[in-house]
């Protein structure tokens, strides 16, 4: 959906009507509110109130050419319920991501010497390889190794004795000047971790009102990342359970337009907020607006982790 921030019309004498000359707009895919009920978002019951949209700086979305990040928090138990709606400027380092896959080297030992033959035999026999056939392959391979002389036999014997007398294996290897082939292979283990994304925001509010908004933004992120704990303050009946924190939808806006579905770089999947670091010093000096406790400077570092592993299909979808 397009949100228009400016539309300019002029009167055309020949046509006798207003003609649009230019317009400024940006794409928006966030929640909507009915005009006759400003507290009830579409798709929610009247008992659920929409969170107050907030942004920094205060004029962030006023210009169609601006770049920013849209954070939307959702209840874990009720994914359709919006709990946080915040737009922030695009900080340096925000457009970085990483993809990880885990491999490990595995030593196959003697099995590596005849493993290929077993696979070939299984394929040729349709998976019906019998014990006699396996013994024939093993015996044939052992005979082939015998061409290397007595050394392999000595090293294997020393390897077995090493469990009883530590150092036997090393002594024999030095004596023969050789080591057994470990038949190393690289084995794929799968995705090693979820992707993480960090954002470092330096907020320098221009006045007391903007500072209050910044503090509300900080509070909203803190609440969204922490669990609920009903009865946690009761000394007689503390709660035994924590409620799951919120999940996040994070969207980039470039030149005032959402990158969802069109981003040639990457999009961020469903995430959770794992860390929120805050510093209210201004050049190591605490400063506040006159007569208030509203800080002049707020540094907020947010760390997010995606909740699903990456695969090729997600790359095709712009992740």
Q: Can you walk me through this structure?
A:
The protein has helices at about 110-125, 130-145, 150-160, 170-175, 210-225, 310-315; strands at about 1-10, 15-25, 55, 70-75, 80-90, 100-105, 185-190, 195-205, 245-255, 255-260, 270-280, 280, 285, 300-305. Mean pLDDT is about 75; it is low at about 35-45. It has about 325 residues and is of the alpha+beta class. A hairpin with a 2-residue loop joins strand 12 (about 280) and strand 13. The protein contains six helices and 14 strands.
User: Number of folding domains?
Assistant: 2
Q: In percent, how much strand structure appears in the residues?
A: 25-35%
- What best-fitting shape do the alpha-carbon axes yield? elongated
Spans of at least 5 consecutive residues with low confidence: 36-47
Q: What profile does the largest beta sheet have?
A: 5 strands, mixed
What percent of the residues sit in helical stretches (DSSP H or I)? 10-25%
Helix count? 6
Please tally the β strands and state the result: 14
Q: How are the strands of the biggest sheet laid out side by side?
A: 3-5-4-9-10
Structural class label:
alpha+beta
Oligomeric state of this protein: single chain
